[in-house]
């Protein structure tokens, strides 16, 4: 089976490395990443102490879209803002029966892909773990979490294939609800980015968690207005998780330990974008909550304030403010 990963960043390289054990894998990405992989191969470590290495000879490494020719499945892992352009570039090379899976943040990317590939099978997916690039071609899976994909029968061969890897995919019939649940978790991304601190450190401070909880409460109200009840991805339902976030630090630490394994290296993709001067995905996270709220006439002041602060940080570049927990909470009114 030939699998092409479009967007060989942190997530794309990890899923590609896992599939290299069982399939012909092509990675399409930026020259910086592809050149490093050609020199070093791909190394993936994990919070649980495991490690995996893929020699470059076991991968097809490319920067041009023609590497997608004859793919059985395409995994799209580019940032949301690049979805249409990246998929449009590979479109001429795809077979009519190529299955396309979105492994991206946010709610809208599968529809964006369908807009470019209306005749193809497009399946939503979700990656629930955090990945940090620790060195060229070296990636660290810094939190627990799974890969989930829609249970469309046409994606079943890919799902079955992953069972022979260290990163199996879980088919879900409720991907709409799963995506909304993932969005609730991703609302922490701008907090980490604005604080310029590791995820674990931010989660250890109650005021940072209060900002996240306020965003989640706004999102849950908006989701309910749209008739969506987020899936339960951990031991607690979404509304209970929002309440636990505001508990004293000691209580939260004990409860969280049973839900999510986070090591000190974990940050967020938005933090990485700000570090490298790239546009962030804030429009797909808090921005999506603001947009959905606007459609139902529901105010989302905390999410709106975080969108504004991230936009300011994008403009400021290296001179952006590093927010303390108390200051951030006051600034957004959480």
From TrEMBL:
Residues 3-151 form the Ketopantoate reductase N-terminal domain. It is an enzyme of class 1 (oxidoreductase). Belongs to the ketopantoate reductase family. This is 2-dehydropantoate 2-reductase. It comes from the Bacteria. GO terms for biological process: pantothenate biosynthetic process. GO terms for molecular function: 2-dehydropantoate 2-reductase activity; NADP binding. Residues 174-313 form the Ketopantoate reductase C-terminal domain. Pfam families: ApbA, ApbA_C. The lineage of its organism: Bacteria, Bacillati, Actinomycetota, Actinomycetes, Micrococcales. Catalyzes the NADPH-dependent reduction of ketopantoate into pantoic acid. Pathway: Cofactor biosynthesis; (R)-pantothenate biosynthesis; (R)-pantoate from 3-methyl-2-oxobutanoate: step 2/2. It comes from Luteipulveratus halotolerans. It catalyses: (R)-pantoate + NADP(+) = 2-dehydropantoate + NADPH + H(+). Keywords: NADP, Oxidoreductase, Pantothenate biosynthesis. Its EC number is 1.1.1.169. One of its GO terms (cellular component) is cytoplasm. InterPro entries: 6-PGluconate_DH-like_C_sf (IPR008927), 6PGD_dom2 (IPR013328), ApbA (IPR003710), Ketopantoate_reductase (IPR050838), KPA_reductase (IPR013752), KPR_N (IPR013332), NAD(P)-bd_dom_sf (IPR036291).
């Amino acid at each position: 089976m030939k699998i092409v990963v479009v967007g060989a960043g942190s997530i794309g390289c990890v899923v590609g490395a896992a599939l290299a054990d069982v399939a012909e894998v092509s990675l399409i990405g930026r020259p910086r990443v592809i050149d490093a992989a050609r020199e070093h191969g791909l190394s993936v470590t994990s919070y649980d102490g495991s490690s995996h290495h893929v020699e470059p000879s076991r991968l097809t490494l490319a920067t041009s879209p023609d590497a997608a020719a004859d793919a059985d499945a395409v995994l799209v892992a580019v940032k949301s803002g690049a979805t249409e352009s990246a998929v449009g570039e590979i479109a001429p090379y795809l077979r009519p029966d190529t299955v396309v899976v979105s492994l991206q943040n946010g709610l809208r990317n599968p529809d964006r892909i369908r807009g470019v590939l209306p005749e193809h099978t497009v399946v939503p997916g979700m990656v629930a773990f955090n990945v940090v690039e620790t060195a060229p071609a070296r990636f660290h899976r810094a939190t627990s979490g799974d890969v989930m994909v829609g249970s469309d029968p046409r994606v079943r061969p890919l799902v079955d294939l992953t069972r022979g890897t260290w990163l199996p995919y879980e088919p879900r019939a409720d991907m709409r609800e799963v995506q909304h649940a993932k969005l609730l978790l991703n609302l922490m991304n701008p907090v980490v980015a604005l604080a310029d601190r590791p995820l674990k450190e931010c989660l250890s401070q109650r005021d940072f968690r209060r900002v996240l909880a306020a965003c989640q409460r706004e999102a849950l109200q908006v989701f309910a207005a749209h008739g969506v009840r987020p899936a339960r991805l951990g031991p607690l339902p979404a509304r209970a998780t929002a309440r636990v976030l505001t508990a004293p630090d000691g209580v939260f630490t004990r409860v969280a330990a049973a839900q999510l394994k986070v090591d000190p290296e974990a940050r967020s993709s938005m933090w990485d974008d700000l570090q490298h001067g790239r546009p962030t995905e804030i429009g797909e996270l808090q921005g999506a909550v603001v947009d959905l709220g606007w459609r139902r006439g529901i105010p989302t002041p905390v999410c709106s304030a975080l969108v504004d602060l991230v936009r300011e940080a994008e403009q400021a570049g290296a001179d952006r403010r590093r927010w303390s927990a108390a200051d951030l909470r006051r600034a957004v009114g959480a």
